[in-house]
From TrEMBL, chains A, B:
Its EC number is 5.1.99.6. It comes from the Eukaryota. (6S)-NADPHX binds at residues 61-65, 127-133, 156. This is NAD(P)H-hydrate epimerase. InterPro entries: YjeF_N_dom, YjeF_N_dom_sf, YJEFN_prot_NAXE-like. It comes from Amniculicola lignicola CBS 123094. GO terms for molecular function: metal ion binding; NAD(P)HX epimerase activity; nucleotide binding.
């Protein structure tokens, strides 16, 4: 099943529309996005195969989704660790971080040490608004994601990939091919170049909005907030 | 299993604590509460046994939980109808209502007509902050809930029950015994008098807060946001 994709420009427009005429708050959308991410981890990494999840969070909304996912993962029984080197002053992200600290979830500054002690990695560094250069301290983080044998789930986009054109031809992300991807709301054009397991989250989209943006609403099962695209 | 309960006063204090030192926003908590309610409906009312769900919403947070639940129920494949006669000017409730209208979920003013055309009812009229009188137009609504043979799921409290002392000795709620109850965050003392199926939602509570308020953290399964107390 090849779902229709949403360009970076339309993804930004849709996000904006959800929060204006759609009447969703960012808190609500991020809670639902992070919940979706946590459900994908649950499918990819059974608790019995290792509970340690390293969540690498970038400075924007993609990182916020990672913070929410980490909270849900804790409640499922995982042991998340957070790498969040560029913490925003944004009130929402600060609150999401506080919620994790109240659960005594550790934050680390040492990604390269942490990657040696985890069973699964969530790449929540850059999402659909990424373009251009990978700034410090993320180049070496993305190289480590590229080189590790630990499975990686990318949130919305493999970090450093171009949203339209996929894997970069040079730079730290050259050759970075995560094991799995969860597209949020809708797949972006980069999925054409993606080979791993692919999930979609966004079980809140109205049929009218899906039609307006020419998106497919796939069939979710039961109470699932995600669906695997096969 | 008899879980420890949370008095009305402590429920209010805990709610306040979650939104201040706990750093949760009301949007977030309501999204999680409504999601829990929707999962209880899914367990009680299989889609194959009838999809029509009448959600009766009161003017406060309990009603807001009902509005969120209705949105999730729609996405699961149910056909919700909303009875929401006292709509607050509160921005959050207005946004939650807008989200339902964008899904073309019908709002009705005629509860007594609607109850004849539904398969399941969600009582999201009054929650833990209820005390005193049942005001118009809810007395006849609660009488209808009492008299109907359609199964009713009450959110946090059977509406009109006293949070501490349970079923009222007089008034419209006398003899109202819903089939099921979902306690949010923690059971309230009224559960002592409740005989039906009992669910708990609140898979976001930190061990530290549970300890402070002397609450039990039951074992949730898998990705469930609810657990049945048996």
């Amino acid at each position: 099943m090849a779902l229709r994709t949403l360009s970076a420009k339309n993804a930004a427009a849709l996000d904006q529309e959800l929060m204006t005429t759609g009447a969703f708050s960012i808190d609500q959308l991020m809670e639902l996005a992070g919940l979706s991410v946590s459900q994908a981890v649950f499918k990819l990494q059974p608790l019995s195969s290792g509970k340690r999840i390293l969540v690498a969070c970038g400075p924007g909304n993609n990182g916020g989704d990672g913070l929410v996912a980490a909270r849900h993962l804790f409640h499922y029984g995982y042991q998340p660790t957070i790498y969040y080197p560029k913490q925003s002053k944004n009130d929402l992200y600060q609150r999401l971080s506080k919620q994790l600290k109240d659960l005594k979830i550790p934050f680390t500054d040492d990604f390269h040490g942490a990657i040696e002690q985890t069973d699964h990695i969530v790449d929540a560094i850059f999402g659909f608004s990424f373009s251009g250069e990978v700034r410090e301290p993320f180049p070496s983080v993305i190289e480590a994601l590229r080189d590790t044998k630990i499975p990686v789930l990318a949130v919305d986009a493999p970090s450093s990939w171009n949203i339209e054109d996929g894997p970069p031809a040079s730079g730290p992300g050259k050759g970075f091919t995560p094991d799995a991807l969860i597209s949020l709301t809708a797949p972006k054009p980069l999925v054409k170049w993606f080979q791993g397991r692919h999930f979609l989250g966004g079980r809140f989209l109205s049929p009218a909005v899906a039609e307006k943006y020419e998106l497919d609403l796939p069939k979710y099962e039961g109470l699932d907030q995600i669906v695997e695209i096969v």
